[in-house]
Write a structure and sequence with these properties.
The complex is a heterodimer of chains A (115) and B (413). Chain A is an alpha+beta fold and 115 residues long. Chain A has two helices and six strands, in the order βαββββαβ. In chain A, strand 3 and strand 4 form a beta hairpin. By secondary structure, chain B is mostly helical. Chain B contains 19 helices and no strands. Classes of the chains: A alpha+beta (115), B mainly alpha (413).
């Protein structure tokens, strides 16, 4: 089995003007997705991230502060899962709740170093 | 946590939180308050992704209380508007405003504010759905069959009027109360009706709107000043109608009329609740139009089969209703009832009194009923012509399918 990370980008809820009901509905979907992965025994961890970003770039260590300004660049959270291969993760990623809000999901395999 | 238990938690809490915070800070700060409540829900929807708290309601109330100090800070920073601090900034006073009874009181104040005579009648429902019921602009638009842009304009207009007329956040007293209450009941019934005969294209019934209207109706019945016979009658009426919601659509999502409905699907607990509400409603002899409408709905529910319906009793209630509150739709209904008891001659006199355009967007119902009239008097060609008119005007897909099916049975004859 390999370890993968699913990274969620875009779709910052703050800017979307969702109603309480829509937000609750979305929360329910996240909840269901998490449950599904837990029941399948593949979920290894994961957290939601605040939208505030501090980015440090270049040799001058320039600090930029990207609070909500560029929605597309916001990483909203991640899950780490254990799966056979990319295809298996892609399958579980079908239930990511935010595709309809223009959200993106990236799958990266976590590199394991030999000791 | 059982997800069923938190059904509509956010929606209901939204109205509560907006109302209580408005009571603390005043109507003029509604914008900041709504943003703050929205933020709280976003925070909850992100932080609850993996696990919900054991007491979600308590979590949200605590979040709302925390928001109080945020809002004080925001207002202080703006400086242009000092909120009314006369209610005291001390924590005890604010905590008391979060007691259940006070939350309900604040929500009632919000409903009565939404129905203020200074607000444009068309703007009231939008505003109530937004602030009391937490609908988004998109949801209000689809519920009221109105463009989102229009809803935005309406809400903006309400905000302006509130500021300009310096509306107070309270329940009117004395002789102002009955008049305002009348508007409140009208708005609740409109919300309910929009759910019951949804005008949207693909959805005939919007249970969420019906449920919301009933929740607000319950608030009226809990409050001493608004526990009035007509409020009980309105609530009974909504119970009776809701009892039939399940039976209104077939498994294939087709409309079923009273004749076709499976009466075993009617929801008995709601009928019983409606009956006990009705008993409270008739404790005095002062009958409102809601009394008569509830009596009519109850009469339908009493009949074991469609054939058992006591049409004469229903006609009696409709005549009383028409005297109290003349409406073109009552005339149409009476025409339909006379056809039920095969009195086509009297039915015709009612059709003749009624120009179809008076029914506005429901004019297709006139043509559909008139088609039934011609079909019942063996004038099939005329019946087909009328039903074609109805088909041209009908908006909802299920109703369209219902009429089309009816048309094809006549063509086969």
């Amino acid at each position: 089995m390999k370890q993968f990370m699913m990274i969620f980008t875009g779709a910052d809820y703050t800017d979307l003007g969702l109603s309480p009901d829509e937000l609750q509905n979305r929360m329910g979907k996240w909840f269901a997705w998490g449950n599904k992965m837990e029941q399948a025994g593949i979920l290894r961890g994961g957290e939601a991230l605040h939208p505030e970003i501090r980015r440090i770039v270049g040799k001058n260590r320039t600090v930029t502060d990207l609070t909500s300004a560029e929605v597309k660049e916001i990483v909203g959270g991640y899950y780490t899962v254990e799966a056979k291969d990319f295809d298996a993760v892609e399958k579980i990623a079908q239930d990511y709740p935010d595709y309809d809000l223009g959200g993106t999901l990236e799958i990266r395999e976590i590199m394991v170093f030999d000791r | 946590m059982d997800t069923k238990n938190i059904d509509h938690l956010f929606r209901h809490h939204s109205g509560k939180m907006v109302s209580v915070l408005t009571r603390i800070f005043g109507l003029q700060h509604l914008d900041i308050i709504e943003d703050a409540v929205q933020d709280t829900f976003i925070k909850a929807s992100v932080s609850w992704r993996k696990e919900q708290p054991d007491y979600p309601e308590a979590w949200l109330t605590k979040a709302a209380k925390n928001r109080v100090s945020d809002i004080f800070r925001t207002l202080k920073a703006q400086k242009n508007h000092r909120p009314n601090f006369s209610q005291g900034t001390d924590a005890i006073a604010i905590n008391e405003l979060f007691l259940d009874s006070e939350i309900e009181d604040a929500q009632l104040r919000m409903i009565f504010t939404a129905c203020h005579p200074k607000l444009d009648a068309r703007d009231r429902i939008s505003f109530a759905l937004k602030t009391v019921s937490g609908f988004s602009i998109k949801e209000i638009g689809s519920a009221l069959l109105t463009k989102e842009e229009t809803i935005k304009k309406r809400l903006l207009r309400v905000r302006k009027t509130i500021k300009k007329a310096d509306l107070k956040f309270n329940i009117p007293q004395g002789k102002n109360l009955p008049k305002r209450l009348e508007t409140v009941m009208e708005v609740l019934y409109l919300i309910f009706n929009e759910g019951f005969h949804s005008n949207t294209k693909d959805q005939l019934i919007r249970t969420d709107l019906c449920a919301e209207a009933m929740r607000l109706g319950q608030l009226l019945l809990k409050h001493k000043q608004t526990q009035l016979p007509e409020c009980y009658a309105l609530f009974a009426l909504m119970c009776f109608h809701s009892a039939r919601l399940e039976a209104k659509l077939s498994v294939n999502n087709e409309v079923l009329d009273l004749k076709q409905q499976d009466r075993t699907l009617w929801h008995f607990p709601l009928i019983r609740l409606g009956n006990s509400m009705m008993h409270r409603a008739v404790e005095t002899d002062d009958f409102s139009c809601y009394h008569y409408e509830a009596a009519i709905a109850a009469e339908h529910l009493k009949a074991k089969t469609f054939e058992d319906t006591d049409w004469n009793k229903i006609l009696k209630w409709y005549s009383a209703l028409q005297i109290l509150q003349p409406m073109p739709s009552h005339l149409l209904t009476m025409a339909v009832i006379y056809m039920q008891i095969n009195d086509f001659k009297t039915a015709k006199t009612y059709f003749n009194q009624l120009p179809p355009q008076d029914l506005e967007q429901r004019a297709y119902l006139f043509y559909a009923a008139k088609a039934d009239y011609y079909a019942g008097t063996n004038q099939l060609n005329k019946a087909l012509a009328q039903i074609d008119l109805a088909l041209e005007m009908v908006n909802n897909n299920s109703e369209k399918a219902y009429l089309t099916a009816k048309r094809s049975t006549w063509r086969e004859k």
